[in-house]
Design a protein that fits this description.
flat, alpha+beta, three-stranded antiparallel sheet, 1 helix
């Protein structure tokens, strides 16, 4: 099972979605604007669970 996406804002106006590994270190970091654009381009087949918005339909 993958970890939930977490929204962080390291500096004002710079929001990112991150996933952490079991040690709490960043495993995946994605800019919010790029992530939302990619979600819209992708025609997914399955519904995503809460916190997994980039995996499946909304």
């Amino acid at each position: 099972m993958t970890s939930k996406r977490e929204l962080i804002e390291p500096t004002p106006g710079d929001k990112r979605y991150v996933r952490r590994d079991e040690n709490g270190k960043f495993k995946e970091v994605v800019d919010v604007g790029r992530s939302l654009a990619a979600d819209q381009r992708q025609a997914a087949q399955a519904r995503a669970k809460p916190g997994q918005g980039d995996r499946g339909d909304r």
